Amino acid sequence: MSSRDGMTGVYNRRHREILLRNESDHCRRHYQEATLLIIDIDHFKSINDTWGMVLGMRLLSP
């Protein structure tokens, strides 16, 4: 299975969950803290509808 989204090239949810679990385990073993930032774009569909999917994909790409 692929670990990246075919359109944007970013890691998919399954792969991100694996990375997060690994990092969490590492922090626990080494008594380190970590921070996770999650960003949600409200009404993203309206961006695609107004400005087109090309711009929408550019916004999501790394």
TrEMBL record:
It catalyses: 2 GTP = 3',3'-c-di-GMP + 2 diphosphate. Pathway: Purine metabolism; 3',5'-cyclic di-GMP biosynthesis. It is an enzyme of class 2 (transferase). Keywords: GTP-binding, Nucleotide-binding, Nucleotidyltransferase, Transferase. Residues 32-62 form the GGDEF domain. SUPFAM superfamilies: Nucleotide cyclase (SSF55073). One of its GO terms (biological process) is cell adhesion involved in single-species biofilm formation. Coiled coil: none annotated. GO terms for molecular function: diguanylate cyclase activity; GTP binding. Its EC number is 2.7.7.65. Its cofactor is Mg(2+). One of its GO terms (cellular component) is plasma membrane. PANTHER family: DIGUANYLATE CYCLASE DGCC-RELATED, REGULATORY COMPONENTS OF SENSORY TRANSDUCTION SYSTEM. This is diguanylate cyclase. It comes from Salmonella enterica subsp. arizonae.
